[in-house]
UniProtKB/TrEMBL annotation:
Name this polypeptide is given: Stage 0 sporulation protein A homolog
Domain annotation Response regulatory: ranges: 3-122
UniProt modified residues of type 4-aspartylphosphate: 59
Keyword presence, Hydrolase: no
Function description: May play the central regulatory role in sporulation. It may be an element of the effector pathway responsible for the activation of sporulation genes in response to nutritional stress. Spo0A may act in concert with spo0H (a sigma factor) to control the expression of some genes that are critical to the sporulation process.
Coiled coil location: none
Pfam families: LytTR (PF04397), Response_reg (PF00072)
Swiss-Prot/TrEMBL keywords: DNA-binding, Phosphoprotein
Amino acid sequence: MIRIAIVDDEGPFRDRIEEIASGALGGETAETEIKKYPDGICFYEAVSAGETFDILLADIQMAGMDGMELGRKIRRENPGMYIIFVTSYEEYAAESYRIDAYQYILKQDLKSRLPGVLRELAGKLSDRERAFRILGTGAEKAKIPYGDILYLYKSKGAKYVNYVTEEGIFRERISLDTLLKELDTRIFLPVERGYVVNMQRIRRISGDTLYLEKGYEVQVSRARLAKVKQEISRCWGGNA
């Protein structure tokens, strides 16, 4: 499932973006869900309440919370979301890349450029979904995409690693050292003895606490705090 949010304060243009997006991804094997929001505040409240999206298509000039402010918040709290700015004005291009926007598309070029960008992202998201682990024993097994893992932990003396995911907690009989060699170290980060966090699922960091999606919290050891903040900053493309 590819989840897309469209944020624009002009209703007809929201509908136009939806029409182009639906047409561009109509032939994709993955299902597509598109939701529309009239301004940045409404979208940000929805995300804060637990809505999740893969792609954000946002206008820049909007009342209340403009696209740039929204983009900075989303990049800080949902670093894995792809941001595409759609605007009538060229002067915001430099700022958009400073917050690591994936693309900046002028509205007059929407029909020619947006379909290709969305199909490219659909491919990236499909590749991400294909990276998974099979967890479980005996007759009960589950296919867990790496991107769905919020964090994992191994209790002292335990023989199993526990995977905390959107769908619940799964476990695998494996040593944490062995598992770490199989994980993408650009995304998965050890933060405490026996705890590894998916940096793309961190919403914010305050003091020594990481606040993840779905309301989970993980403490960072004092010895690793500076390194953890540095790695989060690198992963997010900004300041942690």
